Amino acid sequence: MIGALKEIRVLDMSHVLAGPTSTMVLADLGAEVIHIEPPWGDDSRGFGPFLNGKSAYYVSINRNKKSVVVDIKKNEGKKIIKDLIKVSDVVVENFRPGTMEKLGFSYEEIRKINPKIVYASISGFGHDTIPEYKGRPSYDMIAQAYSGLMSITGPEGGPPVRVGTSVGDIVTGYMCTIGILSALYYREKTGIGQRVDISMIDSLFFILENAVLRYTVSGEIPEPLGTAHPSITPFQAFKTKDDWIVIPIGNDNLWKKFTEAIGHPELKEKEEYKTNKLRTKNKKKLIPLLEDIIGKKTTDEWLKIFKKYGIPASPINTIDRIVNDPHIKYRNMLVEVEQPDMGKVKIAGSPLKLSETPGRVYSHAPLLGENTLEVLRDILGYSLEKIEELNNKRVISIYKS
């Protein structure tokens, strides 16, 4: 099966999560991703959970890539990177702004080496920002806090809460991928490469949805609402007799069906609940009433009833449930990788289901330096003598089983 990005070579100089997420998506779509690692390896190789003493976390975001170990602080290491830039289509980095410039790999310098390069940078506040924010360090939690996301996440009346996955890194990685693909398409039409400057803060601000509008339109400062939606009612989780269930009633027709499904058709006739606007206005009276009703049956009982009436509803799955869910299995969203130093590892698959060139997991995550020899010999044309010399000088590291 041919990947959509089969002819694209990516020089991945990123680390940990945001950049590697972007390059993982590109690799899943068939791009050749050469992950440059320092002699001690990507920091994420030290993140748990561990299997046989090795990081399964690293495996989950670096499948389908090649690992080349280069000390880019040494002049001969810089020469290797420059040679790779000449034969690459994309460079991805997520160092703190200023780092690549100090190393001699600013966009301006890289463009001199390869004018058609697409140079993608991920940082907390972006490279083009106000002076006092340029170079400011950032992590996922900084992005979640600074963007405003944490201020609207958590239980009603409670403290701000971090989203349970690293969305600051992951969403930014996806935004970077969109930027890269757009730049590659533009280059295809014009022959011109360009800079892609992606900010974690920008990316999370972009997904705040109606929270921004609620402030800019009405002056309201949104606060945490638990599972509830700020402008659609009922649209939240309810405690059942044995568990939890989410019930998103997105329009007035669904509301009418819902009242019948729960055995209280009289509710649809009440003036104060006839429209979504009215239900939202009177939610403090409505929600306790619905909580009492929903609490009298189990989650499975409600799911069967709601299915009969065509009402959208879902259990709140725990991770063990969703990992073993038949839908996840059918969509091939949990795949098994034969990892050389770990054995079989199950990781999330690619959600990119294209009819001709779907995203897929076709290779294990590389061992540290596993592809150094291959890349220097087969792509850059270095002699074995030269490679051995660089290895002896510890400019590179070659994996030896």
Provide keyphrases for this structure.
single chain, alpha/beta, Rossmann fold, formyl-coa transferase, domain 3, 2 domains, seven-stranded mixed β-sheet, elongated
Task: Please tally the helical runs, counting DSSP H or I stretches of 4 or more residues.
Answer: 17
Distance N to C terminus? 30 Å
The general outline is elongated
Helix content: 25-40%
Helix/strand-derived category reads: alpha/beta
Quick one: CATH superfamily of the largest domain? Crotonobetainyl-coa:carnitine coa-transferase, domain 1
Q: Let me know the number of strands.
A: 14
Task: Estimate what percentage of residues fall within beta strands.
Answer: 15-25%
What is the name of the CATH class of the largest domain? Alpha Beta
Q: Over the alpha carbons, how many angstroms does the gyration radius reach?
A: 25 Å
Summarize the structure in words:
This protein folds into 2 domains: 273 residues, 3-Layer(aba) Sandwich (Rossmann fold); 77 residues, formyl-coa transferase, domain 3, CATH 3.30.1540. The radius of gyration is 25 Å and the shape is elongated. With 401 residues, it is α/β, with parallel strands linked by helices. It has a 7-stranded mixed sheet with strand order 8-7-6-1-2-5-14, with helices on both faces. Helix content is 39%, strand content 15%. The model has no long low-confidence stretch (mean pLDDT 97).
